[in-house]
Each structure stands twice: as C-alpha cells, then as structure tokens.
Design goal:
Blueprint (H helix, E strand, L loop, with lengths): L1 E5 L2 H18 L4 E4 L6 H14 L7 E4 L1 E3 L10 H8 L11 E2 L8 H14 L5 E4 L21 E4 L2 H7 L13 E4 L2 H5 L3 E6 L5 H9 L17 E6 L9 H16 L7
Parallel strand pairs: 1-10, 2-3, 2-6, 3-5, 6-9, 9-10
Antiparallel strand pairs: 4-8, 7-8
Helix pairs in contact: 1-2
C-alpha cells in the first residue's frame, strides 16, 4: 500500500489526476471504476479540464460505477446516474454505451448483478478503481460486516450512512433510500489498481483504521492492505491520525527522486 500525503485537497486532486492521465496515455482503452461522493468531484473536474485544454481523449474508455441507490429513478437529482452526468460524463467524450452504472431498481437484481460482474470481466477487468471511504471505513456501499470476498449485490445501508447522505435528500434521513446495489469487496479487489482518495479531518479515523489497523470486515477498506497496487492519496487532515506520517512522506519523496533521476544508491 502506497500512502501519498498532500498538503491540500487541490494537491491531492492533482496527484490523482496525473495517475489516471498517465495510465490513459499508455492505454487509450482504459477501464475505469468510478466512485461518487464529494471527494472525487475534484478529480473529475481535473480530468475534464485535461480533456478540454490538452485534448486528453476518453473516446475508448469504459467505466463501471461502484454503486447506485435502490428505488429511485435514474433521473432523480440525487441518483448516481445524475451525479456522473453532472460531474463527469457531460464534460468528456466517453461513449454512452461504454458507461456502466448499476440499475436503481430491485427488480430482478440478482440477474442484473451477475450481468454487471460479467460485463466487467468482458471489458478485460478494471484497470484503476477510484474509491472514497466512509467515516466507518466502508468502500462502495460495502458497510461494516460486509464479506471481504463479496460480489456485486444489494446491501442495506447503516444508520450512519443514511445520516451522512441525508443532506443530499433535503436533510431528512427518512428520504434516503435504505438499500443500494454495490460492487462487492471481492469485486473491487480484482481491479488492477485501487486509488483511494480521502480529505478532511472527518475521514482521519477511517483512514487510520484502513491503512494501519487490522484487516477486518468491520472496516471493509482495510482489505486494501492486501491489494498489490493500492495507492491512498490523502490530505494532511485525513492523515492526522496515522502513526507513520513522516515515513510515508519520506517514501513518496524518494520515489519522486527516483522518477526524476535525482537519486541513486552510492553503496
């Protein structure tokens, strides 16, 4: 697990956008796993700017979103279909047929989930999975106690998640859908690279448990410690409860020296 600590959210966004930009330049038909929530908005805005100003081409990209609420229409202002259109898809040239978001209905959901998994496999697997993290350590809508080998399925949301999402539904917890379709933890772990983004003091405890705590279903994000290519990009506030901050910064600084040719071993 690589931990990259940046002073600000803007710098966090810049680092994460460069990772995706570099991957896309190497592989134009990149398969991206996408997340919703406030944290990745800056990343999507940065990628959209690169598309507009540099001509970064998304025309061969395929995307798979992590999750969607159950029981609301795609056109709902707070559906994740609407979120992705607003914050990313409307600003880049990903073909509509290459964009995959879980359906918002529970009708025939088991068959849909199997088809969603198959579509990921048929696309060649996810190259980079963008992730946020909940205050309780959930990734996607894999709430605490989720199986670390789980697949795409419907999950019941915890009270904490309902409260966290209530501001998007007029501030009323009762208005938040109680279930969601989500990629499973096992599905996420099959991505070739995972990019976990977090900012702000409210995520500090979750990041500390996920990065330095034991691997446990109570903190689903902790399983990313087992992934061979997890990159955690956080700001100083989100890093505030980590024990090895100085070491993570040293590792990143040395990596930058290696990449620039400014470091070599004299021994």
């Amino acid at each position: 697990m690589e931990v990259i600590i940046q002073p600000t959210y803007a710098q966090l966004v810049a680092v994460s956008a460069e990772i995706i930009r570099g991957a896309l330049l190497k592989k134009p038909n990149l398969v991206l796993g996408l997340a919703t929530g406030s944290t990745p908005i800056g990343l999507y805005e940065a990628l959209a700017r690169m598309h507009k100003t540099e001509g970064l081409d998304f025309s061969a990209v395929t995307t798979f979103n992590l999750d969607e609420y159950v029981g609301i229409p795609r056109s709902h202002p707070y559906s994740y279909h609407t979120f992705m259109e607003t914050h990313f898809f409307n600003a880049v040239n990903i073909p509509a047929e290459n964009r995959h978001i879980p359906q918002s209905t529970a009708v025939e959901h088991e068959e849909f989930c199997e088809l969603y998994e198959a579509a990921i496999v048929n696309a060649g697997g996810i190259d980079i999975q963008v992730l946020g993290i909940g205050k309780d350590g959930h990734i996607g809508f894999n709430e605490p106690s989720s199986s670390l080998g789980s697949r795409t399925r419907i999950k019941t949301l915890t009270q904490g998640t309902l409260e966290a999402n209530a501001p998007h539904f007029g501030g009323t917890v009762d208005a938040v859908p109680k279930m969601a379709i989500t990629m499973g933890v096992g599905t996420i772990m099959e991505a070739k690279q995972c990019l976990l983004l977090a900012n702000g003091e409210s995520k500090a405890e979750a990041i500390a448990h996920a990065v330095e705590g034991p691997i446990t279903a109570e903190v689903p994000a902790s399983v990313l410690q087992m992934h061979p290519r997890t990159v955690v990009i956080i700001d100083e506030e989100a890093a505030s409860q980590l024990k090895r901050v100085a070491y993570y910064k040293q590792v990143y600084a040395n990596k930058q020296k290696l990449l620039s040719g400014g470091y070599y071993d004299k021994s």
